[in-house]
Structures are given as C-alpha cells and as structure tokens.
Design brief:
The chain has 20 helices and seven strands. With 491 residues, it is mainly alpha-helical. β1 and β2 form a beta hairpin. It is globular, with a radius of gyration of 25 Å.
C-alpha cells in the first residue's frame, strides 16, 4: 500500500503513464542506493558494476515497465539486508537506523518483507552468539524492529480494524478475519502452489532446489504467469552469490569481509523461504539487489575479478537483445507512446481494451456497474466495477448460492448492471463457456461438465433469460467463438 498510494497522487496528471513514471524513479533510486553503497564499500568502479549488474537483470527491467511494487520492494528489502549486515560488523549507528527504515518500508509494501526480516533476525542472532556479542545483536535487532514497526504499523492496524487480521488475508486459520473464509484461504494457497518447481502432494521436494534456482536464472517457465525470458533473473544473481566464496574475497588488510558473509547468509535463507513459499521470479528482485552488491565487490577485490566483469558484460548484451529488438513488447510500447497512438497499441495487445471503451462510452448515457470474471484490467474502466470471481472476497458467498436466480439477485443487490466474462486463460473451462454462450461456432457439442459451480450458475442464468448477451469481443479467426463477452442483467 505504501507504493500503491503514491501512484494515486499522479493518476490525475497522466493516468497509468504517470504511475509508471513513479515506478521508473524507484528503479533510479535503487540504482543510486546500490551504486553508492558499493562505491563506499569497495571503491568507485564497484558502484558502476553493481548498478550495471542490477539493471541488466531481465525481470528488473520488465517490472520497471509496470506501475507495480516489486522494484520498490526490492530496493527496500535489499537495502535492509545490506544495512543490517554492514551495521553488525561495524560501529556506524546510522546503518542501524537505515536498516530499520528500509525494513519498515519493505513490510509496508509487501508481506514478503517478513521473509527478509526473519532471515535478518536469525543471521544477526547467530552472528552475536558466534562473536560473543549477543547483547549488542539483541539491542540492534530491537532497534531495527522498533523503527520498522513504527513505519509499517499504520497498514497493519488498518487490517486489524477492517478485518480483524493484521496480515489479511493470510494465516486465516490463526487470526480468522472478516470478509474471508477457510475455503477462500485454501483456494488462495492452491493458486500460490501453482508457481514453482518441486511441487508434490506432501509438499515441496528439497531435491528440486538446484533446478528451481537454475530455472529462475535462465528460463522461469513455472515461476511467472507465462514462461518468458523477460521474467528471468539472469545468471548474474547466481554469480553474485557464488563468486565471492569461491574466489575468497578479502579486505585489503587480509581480513575476511564479515558483512558480506552475513549478507550472503541472509540471501540464502531468504532464497530457501522463497522456494518453500511462492516461487515467483519477481520476488527475487529483493535478493538480486544485494547479490549485485556482492558481485561488484568480487569484481573489484576478488582474484580473477575480470571473469565476473566479463559475465556482467555478456548479460548486458543478452538483456539488450531481449528488450531491444523492434518486436519486443518494450520497444513496441515506446514506439506507440512516442507516436501518441495509445489506442492502437492497446487494441493490438489487450483484448479487454475494446470492451473497456464500449463500457466507458455506455456509462456516459446510463448507469453501468460491471462484474468482471477472469479479467484484472478493470483500471481501464471509468465506470464502477468489481472483481467477481470467488476467492477475491466474500462480497458474494458463492458456496451458498444454489440457483442462477440467487446469483442474479446477489449481483442486483450490489447494483450490477453488466457481467463481463473473459475465457482466454481458462483452458477447457473457457472452451465450454464459449460453446455455452455461442453454440455452433466451434462445431462441438455444448458441455459444461468441467465448469466450476459459479460458472455453471452464469451459464444457467443466461439460458433462463436472466442475462442477455450484449456484445462479443476479441473475435478469433472466422469460425471460432468469441473469447470474451459482455452480458446485461435483465431488469
């Protein structure tokens, strides 16, 4: 919420493009922070290597093009890791307060900040025990925690007031909470388990960790919504973790770099938590940040430092290849924006765009409120809408609905006038919905045996005349049924 609220301030001045400008500057802040820290720690050229290694990470550049939170969260979490490690092995109290500030911003941006916070706590406690300075480590952790709690507490207090659960909607079995249920929690957990490698009935397979991290570095087919090298973290992440211990990086006076050891341990613990929780490649931006810092130190101080430097250069070439060709999504977006032809860009790349324009125009002359099913781009609408799928909320208690009449009554209770259904990503269920609403297009016999309960209710409501078929969108080649449709609730 900390980052999302910033976007709200600029939306009136430029819509999503203004919000993306804010996201871009988070990347600038990340580069300045990372470069400055590496320069302060290892020397001037290290700052440039750290910044370059971070920016050459494909998933970082991919996320910079979105008005989302992952780059900002990576800055906050990665900064907390580095500042906490540097404080633990030094005496500068400014680093302690910076660690608390960055951790607080991390926790106020994304719940995954807890993974980093716990890893920091475990490593600093262990360091205190080994160095026989447990009291100092405990006081430092208390200070970091206090500062972090002060910064992030408004959002968690809000959760308690609104839902009764400080980390809503997670840990429902522990905290309970309004507007959620155990079936919702189980559905959410099942969705999270969809991502990643090493899934099995009894839990994650530890033997799959090497394959998971390798896929993360190169081709995260199962660690993002769609397999694409744009979502990869790149080999620099692994190199940043491995080159330092392999090359035996040491300070100029011959002593080991203890802060880098601690940072490496925190990264590894966080990576382990990532494997067992949600293997989303974009979450690793938080660890790519300190990994780039370690890599810059290896280039500047380690034996054979020229080898990782060459590797950074090679990744830069690879990343430029991914994002640079005229056919890449980034290049296309920049070209359309430069020409001012946003409508053409969205028409070609976003199936929902035509429906959004239709609904926005319709909303100028009549009351419109839309229930969106399997469509998340509602921010293009200038009319009221809500995500209607079960699992997002408890506004509609689908498990209690038995008839299509009950579903339509619930939609009317919420003031809904239209229902938009997107079948693009539903597989077999999408085909059955297409056949149900547009029989005869595909030549298949209509069937709804694979449909979930709420989708069966929508089909039955249409068949009983409670929903009128209004407009079809995103028509594929001739002879195929439309993949998205707008239905009007009959008054």
């Amino acid at each position: 919420p900390t980052v999302n609220m910033l976007y709200m301030h600029v939306l009136p001045f430029g819509g999503q493009f203004a919000a993306k400008t804010v996201a871009f500057f988070f990347a600038v802040f990340a580069v300045l922070t990372l470069g400055g820290l590496a320069q302060w720690r290892f020397g001037k050229s290290a700052g440039y290597w750290a910044a370059l290694a971070f920016l050459a990470t494909p998933v970082v550049l991919w996320e910079v093009g979105t008005a989302y939170v992952d780059v900002a969260h990576g800055l906050f979490s990665g900064g907390a890791i580095l500042f906490a490690s540097l404080w633990a092995t030094g005496s500068d109290r400014r680093l302690l307060w910076l660690a608390g500030m960055f951790l607080g911003l991390s926790l106020a941006t994304k719940y995954t900040g807890f993974q980093v916070g716990f890893a920091i706590a475990l490593v600093l406690i262990g360091h205190g025990i080994v160095r026989r300075s447990f009291a100092r480590s405990a006081r430092g952790l208390a200070a970091i925690g206090a500062v972090a709690i002060v910064i992030c507490s408004p959002w968690y207090v809000r959760n308690v007031v609104n839902t009764g659960n400080p980390v809503y909607p997670f840990f429902y079995s522990v905290f309970g909470g309004r507007n959620w249920s155990q079936p919702n929690a189980e559905a959410y957990a099942a969705e999270q388990r969809f991502f990643g490698i090493g899934q099995r009935e009894s839990g994650k397979d530890p033997g799959a960790i090497p394959g998971s991290v390798t896929a993360l570095a190169l081709q995260p087919e199962r660690q993002i919504n769609t397999g694409t090298p744009l979502g990869a973290i790149g080999p620099m992440f692994l190199l940043g973790l491995l080159w330092w211990p392999l090359a035996g990086l040491r300070r100029e006076d011959g002593k080991a770099l203890d802060a880098e050891k601690l940072a490496l341990l925190i990264i590894l613990l966080s990576l382990l938590a990532w494997f067992y929780l949600t293997q989303q490649s974009r979450y690793i931006i938080s660890l790519a940040f300190p990994a780039a810092f370690l890599l810059s130190g290896a280039i500047e101080r380690a034996r054979l430092g020229w080898l990782p430097a060459v590797a950074v250069g090679m990744q830069c070439v690879w990343t430029m290849f991914l994002f640079g060709p005229s056919g890449s999504p980034l290049q296309q977006q920049l070209t359309f924006l430069a020409n001012g032809n946003v409508d053409e860009y969205l028409t070609g790349r976003l199936p929902f765009w035509e429906a959004a324009k239709f609904l926005n125009n319709l909303g100028k002359s009549q009351k419109v409120k839309v229930a969106l099913y399997d469509e998340v781009h509602g921010f293009y609408l200038d009319v009221p809408y809500f995500w209607a799928n079960p699992g997002h909320h408890r506004i509609i208690e689908y498990e209690k609905l038995r008839t299509p009449e009950e579903l339509v009554m619930e939609l009317k209770r919420l003031g809904t006038t239209h229902v938009y259904i997107n079948t693009t990503y539903l597989g077999v269920q999408g085909e059955e919905l297409q056949d149900a609403f547009y029989p005869g297009f595909s030549g298949r016999q209509p069937s709804i045996e694979h449909l979930e309960h709420f989708r069966r209710l929508l089909v039955d409501a249409y068949r009983r005349g409670l929903l009128d078929r209004a407009v079809a969108f995103s028509r594929p080649p001739q002879g195929m049924p439309p993949v998205s449709m707008l239905l009007k609730i009959r008054s």
